[in-house]
Design goal:
Radius of gyration: 11 Å
Largest sheet: 7 strands, mixed
Strand content: over 45%
Structural class: mainly beta
Oligomer: single chain
CATH class: Mainly Beta
Strand order of the largest sheet: 2-1-7-6-5-3-4
Distance between the termini: 22 Å
Order of helices and strands: EEEEEEE
CATH architecture: Sandwich
Amino acid sequence: MKVEIINPDQTVFSGEADVVQLPGKDGSFEILNNHAPIISVLRKGKIKIVDPDKKTEFFEINGGVIEVVKNKVLILAE
């Protein structure tokens, strides 16, 4: 799936991922391929992205919003 992490200044990450783990307002959750459409609020914490080659990256955020539609994950982060 295509993942983009955008903050007010720049695009922090843009690429393909197999797994995205996020700090949701009500607890952590995970997005996989073919996930149902969702919009959710994020709290302060780390986003974990695992790409198709199993490489893992972490991104620290202070909160934000996520939208998932048709295997496209858009994260607007602070």
